[in-house]
Amino acid sequence: MKWFELPHQLTYYECDPQGNLQLGMLFNLGVLAAEIENQGTGVGLGAANQLGGGWVVVNYAGTFDLTHFHAGDQIVVATRVKAFNKFFSLREFSIRDHTGHEWVHYEATFVFMDLVKRRIMTIPPVLIEQYDLAPVKRIPRVPAPSDLVVDDTWQQHQYDVRYFDIDMNGHVNNSHYFDWMLEALGAEFLQTHQLTGVKIQFDHEVRYGQRVTSQAKVADLVTYHQIKTADQGAARAELTWVTVGK
Amino acid sequence: MKWFELPHQLTYYECDPQGNLQLGMLFNLGVLAAEIENQGTGVGLGAANQLGGGWVVVNYAGTFDLTHFHAGDQIVVATRVKAFNKFFSLREFSIRDHTGHEWVHYEATFVFMDLVKRRIMTIPPVLIEQYDLAPVKRIPRVPAPSDLVVDDTWQQHQYDVRYFDIDMNGHVNNSHYFDWMLEALGAEFLQTHQLTGVKIQFDHEVRYGQRVTSQAKVADLVTYHQIKTADQGAARAELTWVTVGK
C-alpha cells in the first residue's frame, strides 16, 4: 500500500509549554490524516456517519521522538492501511520532518462503532473496499502494555470529563487520555524526561458527565498508567522515557 | 492598514462535539495569524523572546457566529494592527468562510510582558515599527464586560490548572479560560444556545499548580463569568446568546 501524506504546519497550540509537539495532538494529527485519506476516496466522516457508525481506535504502539517537531515547523503526517478484516483495520503512521526524516512511527487498530447502540459493528465493506488490499484472517497484533496490578504505591488524580473533551463520536476523544496520563506525572517529570515509546490499549469509552481516575506508577524510565471510571477500566498504557536536562 | 490573511482548513479537533469551531480554538487561530504576520516581517516569536518578552492579550470583544465553520471547512483568519502606542497594540480580527463572508469580527488589545519579571514592559520599537502606522496617544477602548458582584446565585466550578494548559509564555493560554467558562454552563445550555457576542477582560495571569474557580450566572440570553484564583480575579466575561434547537 502507498503512504498517504498530509503536509502540516505545526501551530503553537499543538505544542507543549516547551514548544514541542504534544503527544495527544500527535495522535489527533494521525487520525486527521486517515480521515482526509478516506475523504479523498469518497468514504470520509460523512459516509461513515450515514452508515450509522464511526471509526474508533483500540490501541496504539510505536516509537516516538517529539523533540524534533516544533511550533511553526512544516511536517508530514503519513498513514496507510496495513491489513483489515471484518472487524479490524490496522493502520500504520509515520511522522516526518521537512527533510523526510521519520521521528515517530506507530501502528493503530481501528474498529467501527455503532454510534447509537454504542457497540462494535462489522466494518461496512464500502469503507474498506477502496483499499487495494485483500482481507486477512488474523490482523497482526499491536504490542499491548504490560498487565499490572494497581496498588497503593500508584499516584492517583481525578478528572471530570469536560464537554469539550467529547468528539463527534459522542465520547471522550482518545487524545485526552494522554493529557490525563501525562498530567499525573507532573511538570518536574515531564521537563526532565523525553518520551521514546508508547503502548496504549483503549478498553471502554468514557462519556460526558463521568469522572475518571488517572493512576500512574513511575518505575525508573518506564511509566505505567491506568484510566478508569467508577465502574470499569477505560485504558491502560506503558510509556518509556530517557532523561534530559531541563 | 492592509489585512493579513491566513487560509486554514479546520480540523476536527478544533471543533466542538457538534462539529462547529470551538470558541477557544477561534482565539488560538487569531493569535496564530498575528504571529505568522509578525514572523513574515521578521519579528516573530523568536525575536520577541530574544527581547525578553511575549505578546499577551488583555481583552477581546466582538460579534460571533461559529455555526458556519465546520470541521474540514476552508476558512480565512484575517488580522491587522489598528492602532498602537508605547504600551498597547490594538488588533482587529475577521474570520471568513471560503466565499469571503465574515461571520466573526472582534478586536483585541495586546501588551508586551517581561517573561522573567512577569510584568508589562514598553513594547520594543522594533516589534511595531514594521507597521505602516504612526503611534497614537490613546488607544480606542475595546468594550469591557459589565461590572457585576458575584453572589450565592452564581454557579461555581473548580479546575486545577494542567501542565498542558500552559503556553510558551509560561502561563495558562487564554483560550483555556473559555473552556472553563463554557464548561460551567453545562452541555444542555451549550446544545440549545448559540453564541453571538463576547466581551472578556484578562486581569491577571494564571500559573501552573494553581486552582481556579469558574463562576457563572445565566440571565436569560446573557451569561456572566468570572475566573479567579485563590487570591485574585483572573478574568471577567459577558457572553450573549440566541436559543436554537438541539
From TrEMBL, chains A, B:
Any Pfam family hit: Acyl-ACP_TE_C
Molecular function, one GO term: acyl carrier activity
Keywords carried by this UniProt record: Fatty acid biosynthesis, Fatty acid metabolism, Hydrolase, Lipid biosynthesis, Lipid metabolism, Transit peptide
Family of the protein in this entry: Belongs to the acyl-ACP thioesterase family.
Species for this entry: Limosilactobacillus equigenerosi DSM 18793 = JCM 14505
Superkingdom, natural source: Bacteria
Span of domain Acyl-ACP thioesterase-like C-terminal: 155-241
SUPFAM superfamilies: Thioesterase/thiol ester dehydrase-isomerase
Record has Nucleotide-binding as a keyword: no
Keyword Nuclease: no
Protein name: Acyl-ACP thioesterase
Domain Acyl-ACP thioesterase N-terminal hotdog: 7-131
